[in-house]
Amino acid sequence: MWAGLSEQPSKWFVLGVLALCVAASLVAGTAWRPAPTSLPSTQSGDAELADLGRRIMGEDRPAPAVACVTSTEIRIAMMGAEHTDRFEIGSISKD
Fold it and tell me: What is the pLDDT of residues 9-48, one digit of tens each?
């Protein structure tokens, strides 16, 4: 006996229930997902580099930092953070 049923449900019934659960999860995840953050207006460091970072990255980052290292100088800019804050490295470009 299978949960009070006289016979085991067909594989199509089980697949249908599984598909329904997946569809419901996708709908719920889309409806209640966190709203994207917008880039804070506060910035510190190199203003020109911060403006370039805003144009390249867009406005949906919580608190990015941008650095430009050359043989003659190091430029840094933080948006929504201070130079003493900790960051997670998302990507490094060597362009």
Answer: 788 888 999 999 999 888 887 777 666 567 777 888 999 9
Length of the chain: 95
Q: Give the separation between CA 1 and CA 8, rounded to whole angstroms.
A: 8
**Whether 43 contacts 81, CB under 8 Å:** no
CB 47 within 8 A of CB 8: no
- Segments making up each domain of the chain, as ranges: 43-79
CA-to-CA separations, 74 to 68, 70, 77, in angstroms, rounded:
6, 6, 10
- List Cβ neighbours of 38 (8 Å cut-off, separation of 6 or more): 59, 60
Burial, 66: exposed, middle or buried (Cβ in 10 Å; 0-12, 13-18, 19+)?
A: buried
